[in-house]
Write a structure and sequence with these properties.
four-stranded antiparallel β-sheet; 29% strand; DUF1684; mainly beta; single chain; 1 helix; two-stranded antiparallel ribbon; DUF1684 domain-containing protein
Length: 197
């Protein structure tokens, strides 16, 4: 299994942090300079990088997959008022154990989806949490997971909330983005990944 499906116990934190910072630098460069950046052209000169929560390995968790052999269709509303059809292909269960007294521990679940048409796309994990609309984008955030083989029940894979990102529609109304369905609204604070003012 690749890094996205390794278990969480043997990560080299310094290397992980360096790789995360490198990915963030690459994304900032893309947003600032690439023709397909979601930042409107007239705003790119003033763009000085995305805002992030500090890297925190607490939010790189090992999740246990339950695979849905006959996945249900989930209609996700979009920011433009349309609906997109996804399949709920797996449920990921994970524990959060934090040192901060004001943050909740516990076991949580997120559904992972794929578009209904057959494809090799990564698993799509949109979610809201208690930072949504406060410290992170009001439409929720996304993660993508790329296991290097088909998941089976009980497989462990890494879910790294430090890689959670805001959809392009956070930066421009020209984009239409699916909104996390209610089953992926976490009643917990996840101060990891992209922030949004």
């Amino acid at each position: 299994m690749s890094d996205s499906t390794d278990t969480n116990g043997d990560v080299d934190v310094d290397r992980w942090r360096d790789e995360l910072e490198s990915k963030r630098d690459e994304k900032d460069e893309f947003f600032a300079e690439h023709p397909q950046s979601p930042i409107p052209p007239e705003e790119r000169d003033a763009f000085d990088g995305l805002d992030y929560f500090a890297p925190d390995p607490t939010y790189r968790v090992s999740a246990t997959a339950t695979v849905h052999d006959d996945p249900e269709v989930v209609l996700m509303e979009t920011t433009a008022g349309r609906e997109m059809r996804y399949l709920r292909v797996a449920t990921l269960e994970f524990d959060l154990e934090r040192e901060e007294e004001d943050l909740e521990d516990g076991t949580f679940e997120l559904a992972a989806y794929q578009l209904e048409s057959p494809n090799e796309e990564p698993l799509f994990v949109p979610f809201r949490d208690k930072t949504t609309g406060q410290q992170s984008y009001e439409g929720g955030r996304y993660m993508e997971l790329s296991p290097d083989r088909d998941l089976t029940d009980g497989d462990e894979l890494v879910v790294d909330f430090n890689l959670a990102y805001s959809p392009f529609c956070a930066y421009s109304e020209t984009f239409d983005c699916p909104l996390p369905p209610e089953e992926n609204w976490l009643e917990v604070t996840i101060p990891a990944g992209e922030r949004f003012a």
